[in-house]
Specification:
This protein has 2 domains: about 10-120, no CATH class; about 125-170. It has 2 helices and 6 strands. The chain has helices at about 110-120, 125-165; strands spanning about 10-15, 25-30, 35-40, 85-90, 95-100, 105-110. A 6-stranded antiparallel sheet has the order 1-2-3-6-5-4, with no helix packed on it. A hairpin with a 7-residue loop joins β2 (about 25-30) and β3 (about 35-40). The radius of gyration is 26 Å and the shape is elongated. The chain starts with 10 loop residues before the first strand and ends in a 15-residue tail after the last helix.
Length: about 180
């Protein structure tokens, strides 16, 4: 595979015992030039917290004299013709990562994994921060919509109860000769 940042050949890296089951995880890294790492789908989650084993991943650095254009549109090294989408890894907006919309893989430039690992002490803290953020941004709108939905449901129940009062036997499932609801 070719490096999406500097076009060098990516080399295989095996991190011993990195998966939750204790199995080895094999990644692709640009060890000779830019120091970037390719994570296949669901692999980044095995390395994004400070307590998880990361082996040599944290020591990968950009080679002297190698410059990388951070604004360059990059292509997925696995899907080849698919452009990577750039977005922030968390609500702190400290680290921007690139993700393939087709295969779900992630490209991290040199030093970004270390920055991600230092954002939150655990996954619970990351989830709590995301929940607080979404509550701040969308909470009032969600509560207002839930109130409208509750009012609409109450009106619908009142109308249904009126019909049950007017002709109760027609609205009992199985009691109609013309079929049940």
């Amino acid at each position: 595979m070719k490096c999406p940042a500097c076009d060098a050949e990516l080399s295989r890296m095996t991190i011993k015992g990195a998966s939750p089951s204790g199995a080895d995880v094999t990644l692709d890294g640009c060890r000779t030039r830019c120091g970037g790492i390719w994570f296949d789908q669901f692999e980044l989650q095995k390395f994004d917290e400070p307590f998880e084993a990361a082996g040599d991943l944290l020591t990968l650095k950009r080679a002297p004299g190698v410059t990388i254009d951070p604004n360059k549109t990059r292509m997925c090294p696995k899907c080849v013709s698919v452009r990577l989408l750039r977005h922030f890894f968390s609500i702190k907006r400290q680290v921007a990562v690139e993700e393939c919309p087709q295969c779900g893989g992630y490209w991290l430039d040199a030093g970004e994994l270390l920055a991600i690992r230092s954002e939150y002490p655990s996954e619970k803290d990351r989830i709590r921060a995301a929940e607080e953020y979404f509550e701040d941004v969308f909470g009032p709108e969600f509560r207002a919509q839930a109130q409208k939905d509750a009012e609409t449901l109450a009106r619908a129940r009142r109308v249904a109860n009126m019909f049950k009062f007017i002709c109760p036997s027609y609205y009992i499932p199985g009691k109609q000769s013309w079929g049940a609801f």
